[in-house]
Specification:
By secondary structure, the protein is α+β, with helices and mostly antiparallel strands. The protein contains 11 helices and 8 strands. The protein is about 45% helix and about 20% strand. An 8-stranded antiparallel β-sheet has the order 1-6-8-7-3-4-2-5, covered by helices on one side.
Length: about 290
């Protein structure tokens, strides 16, 4: 890649970062083109040519993604407030746009999200973000850490990955009921299957909250377990943590054979250090752990 092309892509990346940081602000062409010093007369065509969708649609989808996360995972926030933050003057206009895009009203989505049409609607948005957010890793990005054993409460997801959002929603509700806030109780995801198994029904993942207290189920299928202690290869990922498969592939395919290490008999897992929408999406941080012998 030439220095000129890297510079151009870096300027486009600054636009995406600016949008992430200012979703609640005015994001017209003048502002966005100025964020990366592009001509406002050509910027909208440059953006569409680069990302495959218009800057207006990209901003709409970014706001809708934040709004839908708040609806699904923050039941204490009012729909009117979420609608205003998404750029709509009235809840009715937000509800029409939300239903048109996802096939559900905001209140219906809050009660029982249908995640399959949601995932389909954000396909173009995810494709746009992945163009410049593909991470390349090096040996220096990986550290070997001795981690202590961590008792955890586990909610298992054993179903199509398209329905994982519903399990996450129940997990968050259960954590609130038991007082296991992410700021005081570490959050882990343990993958027990491939990201895309041959049969979607074979997808298997554990959602875990660190706790040394007795577990109260509150009607949910919660069990006690442990993240075992020991040596781990740790790879820190910033931004685009919805898909950690590229980072996991780097550890297995490149780092492990080059480092002369052997994997231990426990699945690869991650610790999520912060969460969208509490922080802008490009600032979300996760650490990937590969247990070693």
């Amino acid at each position: 890649m030439t220095a000129t092309l890297r510079n151009y892509q870096g300027r486009m990346q600054r636009v995406l970062d600016y949008i992430d940081q200012h979703l609640g602000d005015d994001l017209d062409l003048d502002i966005l083109s100025g964020a990366a010093a592009f001509s406002k007369f050509h910027f909208h065509r440059q953006f569409t040519a680069t990302f495959g969708l218009s800057v207006h649609r990209y901003v709409q989808l970014a706001r809708m993604k934040r709004a839908s996360y708040r609806l699904a995972y923050r039941d204490d926030e009012r729909v009117t407030e979420i609608a205003m933050d998404a750029g709509y003057d009235a809840p009715e206009a937000f509800a029409r746009a939300f239903r048109q895009r996802f096939g559900q009203s905001p209140s219906s989505f809050r009660k029982s999200p249908d995640w399959e049409p949601w995932l389909a609607a954000f396909g173009p948005f995810d494709n746009a973000r992945s163009k410049f957010m593909q991470k390349t890793f090096s040996h220096d990005d990986v550290t070997i850490r001795d981690v202590p054993p961590t008792p955890v409460a586990i909610m298992e997801h054993r179903d199509d990955p398209a329905t994982l959002g519903a399990t996450i929603q129940r997990f968050i509700t259960w954590r609130k009921a038991t007082g296991l806030h992410p700021k005081t109780s570490p959050t882990f995801t343990v993958w027990r299957s491939e990201r895309r198994p041959a049969s979607p029904a074979d997808y298997s993942v554990d959602l875990c909250a660190g706790t040394g207290q007795p577990i109260a189920a509150h009607g949910e299928a919660i069990k006690a377990g442990e993240i075992p202690g020991g040596r781990c290869a740790v790879l820190r990922v910033v931004g685009n943590t919805d898909n950690l498969e590229p980072a996991a592939l780097y550890l297995y395919r490149d780092w492990l054979p080059a480092g002369g290490e052997e994997a231990r008999d426990f699945p690869i897992y991650c610790q999520r250090l912060n969460f969208f929408p509490e922080v802008p999406e490009h600032e979300v941080v996760a650490e990937l752990f590969l247990p070693l012998k």
